[in-house]
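Consider this pair:
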Amino acid sequence: MRAVEIRPGVNIRWVEVPGASPARVYLHGLGASSAPYYAEAVAHPLLAGRRSLMLDLLGFGISDRPAGFAYSLEGHADALAVALAKIGLRRSEIVGHSMGGAVAIVLAARHPEMVRSLVLVDPNLDPLEPYLGALGSRGIAAYDEAEFLSSGYEQVLRDAGPEWAATMRLAGREALYRSAVGLVRGTHPTMRKLLLELEVPCVLLHPADSPPAGVRELTQAGVQLVPVPDTGHNIMIDNVDGFARAVSQQRLLV
């Protein structure tokens, strides 16, 4: 485990596998942690041999959980940019799952010098409408913060199921709530609009039976859509071979 201090007393941490450049930085989704979600894929023969950083965003996994941080998508992206700069990385390949994909898009828009290319894994591209009882960010954001911290957290943890709860319980409660609120609120312009205007190569992985909205618009903007069979939302876990093949193709684009 490695760490970098992005502000006094606040550290972003990651698990690193040494290898060749350019580095590949893996970002997790809401309530997740990068190493449990990506480690098997990073060791896959098609992906092995590259310097790989399985990095946890502030508030999640093994990174610090400062209560005073806003945990917006912009805040996550800016903190990530500071971390990458202090690590000494420029123009990395960024692989982002779900919320991590949204953070990766914002990173590329706000800090283009940090991003060589993007692999977006079933990412959030559009604002969402929160409602109580929904699984994930929409359900979390339907609480007010005080209610979530006092009682909603335990209900959300139960609803998440044992696998997701295994990493969700590592997250700071403020971080989980505020990140969910930031995710359903989205950015201005939206993550989709930011993505359409990016100039870096981008691959978007999606479950084969669930293509993203706006396929024509995305492809016209140069986003390469890659359907991965036999997967749900957690593509890198559900079909490690398919995920590894799709990510390895990114080398052709850079």
